[in-house]
Amino acid sequence: MARYTGPSTKIARKFGEPIYGADKYFEKRNFPPGQHGAARKRARKATDYGSQLKEKQKVKYMYGVLERQFRNTYEKASRMSGQKGENLLFLLESRLDNIVYRLGIAPTRAAARQLVLHRHITLNGLVCNIASAQVKPGDVIAVRERSKSLEVIQNSIASATKYSWLEFDAAKLTGKYLNVPTREEIPENINEQLIVDLYSK
């Protein structure tokens, strides 16, 4: 299955914000990529459709999800009670690769996805190599015993950010998904209503 594996800073510059996390290269060149990127003083005003499409693309890159999978996630969110946009974010936040990233086991979502695919992560005591697996409140996520000494994991844990909806034991490398986060607790700069408007056309 094809997935974007190119330079992350180029994508961050395209959207005008560090969507993959702290990026020192983006800070130095925080203007659009391309030959005339720095010279674009007056960019053309985006249409409503253009703004909606850009927001959807940004979220897809941010969570590492392709179009069909993203559309299926949105349709699932639409069938849930509550607001569609918030439900979409809750489903994306509940993906196993995202939970591994939020726990601080991996420095980025792409790295978290790789750890899951390479069978370094267990879900409720069983090895799970499906990055898109939906984690439910009460589920336990852990690093396999043989993988606990991996340098990437140890380095990531040292600078991990704590989140109120997750519980993590750094000594045992075991975490628990306590509850679905509220919209205010999700730190990403996302306007989910634009995505709802796009799919409602």
Summarize it:
By secondary structure, the chain is of the alpha+beta class.
Could you outline the blueprint of secondary structure elements for this entry?
Elements (H helix, E strand, L loop, with lengths): L7 H8 L8 H5 L19 H16 L3 H13 L4 H10 L2 H8 L5 H9 L3 E3 L2 E2 L12 E4 L7 H8 L7 E4 L4 E4 L14 H8 L2
Helix pairs in contact: 3-9, 4-5, 5-9, 6-7
The assigned CATH architecture of the largest domain is Orthogonal Bundle
Low-confidence stretches: none
CATH H-level superfamily title of the largest domain: Ribosomal protein S4/S9, N-terminal domain
Average pLDDT: 88
Strand tally: 5
Number of domain modules: 2
Number of helices: 9
What characterizes the major β-sheet? 5 strands, antiparallel
Q: State the end-to-end distance.
A: 28 Å
Fold-level CATH name of the largest domain: Ribosomal Protein S4 Delta 41, Chain A, domain 1
Shape: globular
Topology pattern, helix = H, strand = E: HHHHHHHEEEHEEH
Strand order of the largest sheet: 2-1-3-5-4
Broad CATH class of the largest domain: Mainly Alpha
- What percent of residues adopt helix (DSSP H or I)? 40-55%
Radius of gyration computed on alpha carbons: 18 Å
